[in-house]
Amino acid sequence: MCKVSSSLYSQSLPEARREASGQTHWVPNTDVYAMDDGLVVKVELAGMRREDLELAVEGNRLMITGQRPDGCRAPGCKFLVMEINYGAFECVIEIPAGYDLSRARAAYQNGFLRVDVPVATRPASKTVFVQVTEVK
Among 9, 36, 69, 114, which is disulfide-ready with 92 (CB 3.0 to 4.6 Å)? Predict the structure, then answer.
């Protein structure tokens, strides 16, 4: 299992997409752990809405992208400490063999995105988009 940084992944993005964004990307804090019935990917995304997230699967890679808006800064403010990342982000995680990304399920609750990837019964080989539901 490998978390691929956004700068490595963005090198493979089409040139037009990279130029159009014109923004630096950040990578959210992520936990990945195995359970008996599959793999769990948990991503810390406080301050985001479900609608601002996109999940896609390409081969053995889970790609999570979105944008955290920065609507709380006052104009002309001068930071003493700034540790919260805003703007576009992407997180690319290489999922090890033995898990079926085509059957992945995602839920977003209290600022955390959780993606459950079940153990594979057959290998997946196509790009699949994963829908995110909001848990209330």
Answer: 9
